[in-house]
Amino acid sequence: MKTIKHIFAYPVVATALMVAPLGSAWAGDAETKAIVEHHLASFGAGDMKETLADYTETSVIVTQGGELRGLEAIQGLFTGLFAEFAKPGASFDLKILSTANNVGYIVWSADTADNVYELGSDTYVIEGGKIAVQTLAIQATPKK
């Protein structure tokens, strides 16, 4: 299993996270909205089981450092993310959140004990009620 340092070209973290109010900020397909909202809430709660429930064994997350395929690889990514965002003082600022048909899109920034995430962007492609493909791009600066 890849470690978080192997996944990204830059110090990492990403995806959505310390849940921001979603409500009327969403526009688009109701199913896509519900799935992305569940994903953000599950991640924000640090709930691995519910976070992984949004993916399948054929799901792919594409990052700057390569592709993560299947639940085991995706779990490895979220294990690192949960650990970093669980540290005291972590914050997440959701800047844009929208949907169109089966595609969800977010833009965010964050601050953790380890990194400043100047810019994060995730795109979610939903198929069969699950995240089939997710892209993740970040610009981060380590604090150490």
CATH topology: Nuclear Transport Factor 2, Chain: A
Q: Low-confidence parts, pLDDT < 50 over ≥5 residues?
A: 1-27
Provide the CATH top-level class: Alpha Beta
- Report the CATH architecture: Roll
The percent of residues in helical segments reads 25-40%
* Outline type: globular
Distance between the termini: 26 Å
Order of helices and strands: HHHEEHEEEE
Give the neighbour order of strands across the main sheet: 2-1-6-5-4-3
* Tally of distinct domains: 1
Query: What's the number of extended β-strand segments?
Result: 6
| Beta fraction | 35-45%
Radius of gyration (Å) = 14 Å
Write the layout of secondary structure elements.
Layout: H1 4-7, H2 30-44, H3 48-52, E1 60-63, E2 66-69, H4 70-85, E3 91-100, E4 103-111, E5 115-127, E6 130-142
Parallel strand pairs: 1-6
Antiparallel strand pairs: 1-2, 3-4, 4-5, 5-6
Descriptive account of the structure:
The protein has 144 residues and is α+β, with helices and mostly antiparallel strands. It has one domain (4-142): Nuclear Transport Factor 2, Chain: A. It contains four helices and six strands. It has a six-stranded mixed beta sheet, covered by helices on one side. The chain is globular. The model is unreliable at 1-27 (pLDDT under 50).
Tags for this entry?
disordered N terminus; alpha+beta; 28% helix; 144 residues
Write a concise synopsis of the structure shown:
The protein has 144 residues and is an alpha+beta fold. It contains four helices and six strands.
